[in-house]
Target: Angiotensin-converting enzyme
Amino acid sequence: MICVWIDTRVLVAAAVLGLLVERVLGITDARLVQGTNVNLGEALQFLREYDSEASRMCFRVSSARWAYSTNMTDHNKRRMIEEQTLQAKFDKLSWKRAMTFDWTRLPDQMVRRQLKFLITNSRASLSDEKYNEIYHLISEMKDIYSHVRICPLNNHETLFCDLELDPDVLRIMSNSRNHMELAHTWKEWHDKVGPPMKNKFMRYVQIANQAARMNGFLDAGEEMRYAYEESDFENQVAEAWKSLQPLYRELFTYVRRKLLQLYGPNVIRPEGPLPGHLLGNLWAQDWSKIIDLVAPYPEYTSMDVTDEMLRQGFTPLRMFQMAEEFYTSLGLQPMPPEFWRFSMFDKPNDRKVQCTASAWDFCNKIDYRIKQCTEVNMDDLISTHHEMAHIQYYLHYAEQPYLYRDGANPGFHEGVSNAISLSIFNPVHLHRVGLFNQNTDSYETNINFLMLMALRKVAFAPFAYLIDLWRYEIFQNGVQNMNSAWWELRLRYQGVIPPIPRTESHFDAAAKRHIPADIPYMKYFVALLLEFQIHSSMCFAAGHEGPLHTCDIYRSREAGRLLA
Ligand SMILES: *[C@@H]1O[C@H](CO)[C@@H](O)[C@H](O)[C@H]1NC(C)=O
Ligand SMILES: *[C@@H]1O[C@H](CO)[C@@H](O)[C@H](O)[C@H]1NC(C)=O
Ligand SMILES: [Zn+2]
Model:
């Protein structure tokens, strides 16, 4: 029998019982109700079948998604949706079968853990009707998001309202220094994205919470946090933010002073918050695009090695070969032959493709690919190494059961890849690979470099932290006043305000795709902390001496062993 606890009194009792079970079995959590089957042989048999079927399903879905992402036709889109629908059905069925076991009482830790993953990673507790509904709500919101087109500032006669997020809106927000144009673009984007999906989002919150409660959680926010397997996760991230806050404040006040010099006190209040449209990014999450306005030593050459790459005749293929050589220099495996045969390294000109760089695991232990519309420039060179770190991670856990083939926690994959990026993007490494021919010991070069890193990493911290704080709050307290709740958090953590007043008819959180797309965000905050910890450990293993930003783990077998 499958039964579900909804009553909170039962939940309290369950929590107490859970604690007892935990002591006896060493289980981290026993909140989920389960069936009665405690036959280990049957559980093992079920998991074996699940493993091969889930891998096969994942291969089919990945293949269909790949086909669509690299060739965006209606036919390929339909095929992808068909496969995803099959997978959703399979997930629901697997959940039902997993629920017939009393997993807390099975005498095998691996079996318990896999069943727990199956049961908790799912909205399958919903009725078929609601399960379909939330799935459709999310895809409708994603559709709205990807179809928004906005108008440019109308200082010309002609007015074509056909600006897309990528590349048009992003380009204006990073390159324009006209605050009227920035405010206009910001407003257009926020006004056109949020309101059309507000009702859908409110319904989504309701159903997501229902699913979470049926799984024994208080709300969907608690369910999101559960993936970290840390009972005081919220406190841990709050403490981490508190320790970063003084550094963020210094960056903030420094940047505010520089922007004040440029835009004047009518646009920026000398003692006030920062208007979010002036920081070189639509969401004010990465300020590196205004490095030209804030660099401490603007007369010193930038670290951008793009010109040198062009001079040396780099190609996208050569960039991938260079990345592979980085990993083999650490003693890690080269990319498999299928990687070289099937990856997409360039943007094709005979069809429409989805250009966001990504690394793919086709779940068959053979097929691993990267999709990237590579251009010969420094950002893409770093991205190539970053994506290939994901492939290294895939290769290293290939022999694990399907349910374990993922990051050690939701922030880990990105943390590992970002740690590699820290080794690639620094003066010492770029010098070693013959791309940066300046003196790497120059004080001014190093300070400019550290400022650039601060604009990327330190500026990102409060943003990465608050996105899910907002979501946790909405899941817990409901959707009333959700736009003012959003701006309260933006002000409190980032010190950022909108360029023009907002109301509850707006829905500004939706301007960030992860909100309509139902993708958790706290993992990026966790990854930001992990990347420096992982980098620092690898540097220690490599015997690095001196400040961390000059560490490059290239050719260190010790660092490679530790990473593996
Ligand atoms: C793109 O997909 C269509 C099917 O919609 C197919 O006919 C075509 O051959 C594909 N193009 C490439 C280059 O794969
Ligand atoms: C375009 O210009 C007209 C008049 O010049 C003005 O009324 C209108 O608000 C402007 N629209 C935008 C989007 O700036
Ligand atoms: Zn990544």
The CA atoms of residues 114 and 364 lie 19 Å apart. Residues 151, 153-154 surround 2-acetamido-2-deoxy-beta-D-glucopyranose (ligand 2) (CB under 6 Å). The longest strand covers residues 358-361. DSSP finds 21 helices and four strands in the chain.
